[in-house]
Specification:
By secondary structure, this protein is of the alpha/beta class. 33% of the residues lie in helices and 22% in strands. Belongs to the SbcD family.
Length: 387
């Protein structure tokens, strides 16, 4: 069986101040064309269809168009909700859509109920694991500790239990939206940290033939059977080095996996340039970036006059301008930035306690801080789900 694995469409999301709806529509067309020309048997979409719980109308219309085109193609589509989606909204009409071959899986309680598709070698069971916010699904999965690994492991236990009751030789595919250990994040994914831990081990997916992952925006191979497709379009300059693709996965009769990357159309290259303003305007090596979307970081010791206007004369698609003036190592701003570099919110809060009090928080105080940050995240998730 041949699968086309994609995720993280983020319909409705702009790139800085540039609208991306046209590029997103071009991607949908490319997806449909690829499914038709490469004889795809099923399309899998591993979450974050939309960028917001309440997406703009134009994004909803584009999603509707995508569903109609996939249904008309006659290629079954299985998709799950991600942490950016409203699972309830995305799941509206799922029963009716299923009759057209569009299988939406947005309910955690249905993790162990697969979509069954068949080829010449028998059945393939597709299990949809929507994004599982630990604080919201801990009761559903009866876990003592509300963490990503615990709830995802419980969901996978249901998958393996169902699979064990099926005919020998039934192959299996899991769709999941999670941060798996070994994955490389970018700046454009929303933080899903709970209890200071966001990542789950790849071994949680043991027992299935292929895990089609979403959430991280870079296309990545965690293991031969566990892969991220990445987002089809860039949504931050941290993705400048990404090659935007989908996975074309062939699942053999014995469950063996072979995979090929299929490039996605990208509207414009990304470039991150750094230096003094005069150097950036004069450097002949930067000619290749003159038509790219540009993030410029100026290192001038004194902020130059009209830097954006001057940059735009050479780089007309400059979207982001930052200043990082060269300073001596004893400059207080340098030392402060170094102290913060690579630290999450909880660690910064702990360091603030140390700075104010002279001693760091004890184990109980660290737990209070951790629970406070988790509570804020859980409240945000509840509000998103209720919108």
């Amino acid at each position: 069986m041949r699968l086309l694995h994609t995720s993280d469409w983020h319909l409705g999301r702009p790139f800085h101040r540039v609208g991306m709806l046209g590029a997103q529509a071009e991607f949908i067309g490319h997806l449909v064309t690829t499914a038709r020309e490469r004889d795809v048997d099923a399309v899998v979409v591993s979450g974050d269809v939309y960028d917001r719980a309440v997406p703009p109308l134009a994004a909803v219309e584009l999603f509707d168009d995508a569903l109609h085109r996939l249904a008309a193609l006659g290629v079954p589509t299985v998709m799950i909700s991600g942490n950016h989606d409203s699972a309830r909204r995305l799941g509206v009409g799922a029963g009716l859509m299923e009759r057209a071959g569009i299988h939406l899986r947005t309910e955690p309680s249905a993790c162990g109920t697969p979509v069954l598709l068949s080829d010449a070698h028998g059945d393939v069971a597709f299990y949809g694991l929507p994004y599982l916010e630990p604080a919201l699904v801990r009761d559903e999965f009866a876990v003592e500790k509300a963490g990503h690994e615990a709830v995802l492991a419980a969901a996978m236990d249901r998958v393996r239990a169902d699979l064990a009751g099926r005919a020998p030789g039934t192959r299996s595919v899991v769709l999941a939206h999670a941060f798996v250990t070994g994955g490389e994040p970018s700046d454009s994914e929303r933080d899903i940290t709970v209890g200071g831990v966001a990542a789950v081990p790849a071994g949680v997916f043991d027992g299935v033939d292929y895990a089609a992952l979403g959430h991280l925006h870079g296309c990545q191979t965690i293991t031969e059977r566990v892969r991220y497709s990445g987002s089809p379009l860039p949504y931050s300059f941290s993705e400048a080095a990404h090659r935007k693709t989908m996975w074309l996965v062939d699942l053999a009769a014995d469950g063996a996996v072979t995979a090929e990357r299929v490039d996605c159309p990208v509207p414009r290259a990304l470039a991150r340039i750094r230096g003094t303003l005069e150097d950036l305007l004069a450097d002949p090596a930067l000619v290749r970036h003159e038509e790219a979307w540009v993030e410029a970081t100026l290192t001038d010791p004194v902020r130059p006059a009209d830097p954006m206007a001057r940059l735009a004369e050479r780089f007309p698609h400059t979207l982001s301008l930052a200043f990082d003036p060269a300073r001596t190592t004893d400059d207080p701003d340098v030392s402060y930035a170094r102290r913060l570099a690579g630290r999450d919110d909880r660690r910064i809060a702990e360091d603030f306690v140390t700075h104010v009090r002279g001693t760091g928080p004890d184990a109980h105080e660290r737990a209070v801080l951790r629970d406070a940050f988790d509570a804020v995240r859980a409240d945000d998730s509840v509000r998103e789900a209720a919108r």
